[in-house]
Design brief:
Number of strands: 7
Largest sheet: 7 strands, mixed
Structural class: alpha+beta
Order of helices and strands: EHHHEEEHEHEE
CATH superfamily: Gcn5-related N-acetyltransferase (GNAT)
Helix content: 25-40%
CATH architecture: 3-Layer(aba) Sandwich
Number of helices: 5
CATH class: Alpha Beta
Number of domains: 1
Strand content: 25-35%
CATH topology: Aminopeptidase
Strand order of the largest sheet: 1-2-3-4-5-7-6
């Protein structure tokens, strides 16, 4: 089933979602990034770069994509957000966190932490999350977006109008480094 034709609903993430989000993010990174990153890079990045950013939840700028199960329960199949703060990527324990607010007249909103459950990958969920984030950021006055993408995600974002403007390497605690693709888009 494709995300555009399914019963997937979007809502703001709340603190009660954190355990399920943490599990989804780690599984997504370990399974979907394996073709682009070494096991050492993935191991070193999980929980440092790829974990829940509670500031996004507190700011009500992080969304979950939920699917109703036949039993009437909801399961989170994807997540992602945007930010009006300077931090470009990473969870609560990532280096270089910057909580200062951005000015929509001169700054780009940050598109942040889009992850899809591996069993739901390739069904349009990531694209829908990105669209929800862009719409919400635009409603807050932003006309430009930027992100720090993984190598894996850069393909999707490129198809959605994002242009690469640089690359950085993030040193990891295990001695590996993790390449990040810097991308931007103007509406």
């Amino acid at each position: 089933m494709d995300a555009r034709e399914s019963s997937i609903q979007f809502r703001y993430a709340v603190s009660d979602d954190i355990p399920q989000l943490a599990e989804l993010i780690e599984r997504s990174v370990r399974e979907l990034q394996a073709a682009d990153y070494s096991a050492e890079q993935v191991d070193g990045s999980v929980r440092l770069l790829f974990s829940v950013d509670s500031q996004l939840l507190a700011d009500c700028t992080y969304f979950v994509a939920e699917m109703a199960t036949p039993g009437g329960e909801h399961t989170i199949v994807g997540c992602g957000g945007w930010s009006n703060r300077k931090t470009l990527f990473g969870g609560d324990h990532a280096p270089s966190r910057q909580a200062e607010l951005l000015d929509p007249k001169r700054d780009a909103a940050k598109i942040r932490a889009i992850f899809v459950h591996p069993l739901w990958a390739g069904r349009g969920i990531g694209s829908r999350i990105l669209a929800v984030c862009e719409t919400a950021a635009a409603a807050s006055g932003f006309t430009r977006f930027e992100m720090g993408s993984t190598l894996t995600g850069a393909h999707l974002y490129g198809r959605r109008g994002y242009m690469e403007y640089g690359r950085i390497e993030i040193p990891l605690p295990n001695g590996a480094s993790f390449p990040i693709v810097l991308m931007a888009k103007k509406i």
